[in-house]
Specification:
two-stranded antiparallel ribbon, mainly alpha, about 80% helix, single chain
Length: about 150
């Protein structure tokens, strides 16, 4: 069996995309893990890699310009939203886990963006999600003190 150079290039490209999705999601998962949230260092990279993988599979099967890509994205948005919904817990009149749920959703978008080769969007999503989770702690503490 002989493997074509173009096949090797495609395999390498897929591995780079999947690795990029993993790497961009890892800091977000680390943040959630250090805060002892319901989803963390394992969940976030897996969501990004799976989202990226579904997009890569859809491109290979349907073609990048196919109208069927909209259905793939719709399924990803719904599926990742479902996973995020599991992170939200309600205690009496208060809900917790909403930031984890929202960051899971953003991580799914990050993975999809990598799959479509939109690295600038993926990097910005990763950076903004991480910075929001890290940087807003002080604001949240200040808001709770004033109440």
């Amino acid at each position: 069996m002989r493997i074509e150079i173009s096949s090797l290039y495609e395999i390498g490209s897929h591995l780079i995309n999947l690795g990029a999705a993993y790497g961009l999601a890892l800091p977000i998962g680390w943040d959630r893990e250090t805060e002892e949230r319901s989803a963390g260092i394992r969940t976030f990279p897996l969501v990004a890699v799976a989202s990226c993988g579904f997009v890569l599979i859809a491109i290979a099967v349907l073609g990048k310009e196919s109208a069927g890509q909209a259905r793939i994205l719709e399924g990803l948005i719904t599926g990742v939203g479902f996973i995020g919904g599991g992170a939200i817990l309600k205690h009496g009149g208060q809900a917790s886990g909403t930031a984890t749920a929202a960051s899971l959703w953003a991580t799914g978008a990050l993975g999809a963006a990598v799959g479509y080769g939109l690295y600038d969007i993926a990097a910005f999503l990763g950076l903004m999600t991480f910075m929001t989770l890290r940087g807003s702690r002080h604001l949240k503490k200040a808001a709770n003190i004033q109440q």
